[in-house]
Amino acid sequence: MIVTVTPNPSIDRTVTLGTPLTRGAVHRVTSATTEPGGKGVNVARALTLAGVDAVAVLPAAESDPIVAALQSSGVTFRCVPVTGTVRTNLAITESDGTTTKLNEPGATLDDSARNALTRAVVDAAAGASWVVLSGSLPPGMPDDWYAEIVATLAPAACRVAVDTSERPLDALAAAFGRAAPDVIKPNSEELAWLVGASPAELESAAASGDPEPVVLAAHRLIDRGARAVLVTLGAAGAVLVDQTGSWMATPPPITPRSTVGAGDSALAGYLRAEVGGAEPPQRLQMAVAYGSAAAALPGSALPSPAQIDLKAVRVYAITPASAQP
Q: For 77-87, how does the pLDDT look when each residue is reduced to its tens digit (9 = 90+)?
């Protein structure tokens, strides 16, 4: 079983425009979708579509709209009761796939709710092969909550993946000595944030066929204790670095429709391959196949196995020049 944890879940509303977004203008919406969201919820949704046993853990009142939405989606979930209402996030997608996101901060979690969520995660982890900690933290949560959960689960049999950003990511990286995850999934901007690099330089190098700057940056996290770093690079694909090697995968050409959930789909693809016994290059291949399939779908739709074109994803090993004899 894979447990996903979403401390700051959301109702994700995505609207699609037929024309470019212009500040101050009136726009006509061509389509709109609403789905239960938050990064961990998205991972659980994608895994459920693939027939992988997954359960989403999140804070939400029994009467919250996200509960009914999750029930309709078929995702197994466990809610920690809270008094606030799950936030609503808005994504505006243009015809070329450009996506603008407007994310609410989320309901404040008091000490009682935070402690209950921590207990629920630890209890669920007892029967899990993976625990996935994903997304932003809501008001009231300390920046180091993810780091504390990773440290708490270190003696357990499960492995831990983390996908977050900004201050929670900083706090996690600062605690790698005692709280290094088995997989961390930054995008180029988040990786650059962690190592003091330029995100534009990382992205442009990868897009031009030179992933070495990304690999070297990811190796700095491996040196600090992370066991694997999965770096998503948008249209350029993704890079995977672990203690045994490094690889890059490039996606097939697609017509982008929405980037909502693409990174979450990539992590779901990686985990789906891992629990299926795949080696690191094949995990990366599945991750990129899932991410590119999600980007080709409208709104916050997530891909099913039938929509994955695994053979169209090219994977190759990378040996950084600095590591060559």
A: 999 999 889 99
Which backbone phi and psi does 290 adopt, to 5 degrees? -70, -45
Number of domains in the chain: 1
For residue range 291-300, what is the model confidence (pLDDT) as tens digits?
Answer: 999 999 987 8
Q: According to DSSP H, which parts of 126-175 are helical? A: 145-153, 166-174
CB 39 within 8 Å of CB 58: no
Which candidate in 123, 182, 264, 309 is catalytic? 264
C-alpha–C-alpha distance, residues 186 and 183, integer Å: 10
- Told to judge if 309 belongs to the known catalytic residues of this protein, a careful annotator would answer no
Structure tokens at 153: 């689960």
Decide if 162 contacts 172 (C-beta within 8 A): yes
- pTM of the prediction? 0.93
Residue 198 structural domain: 2-323
CATH of the domain at 243: 3.40.1190.20
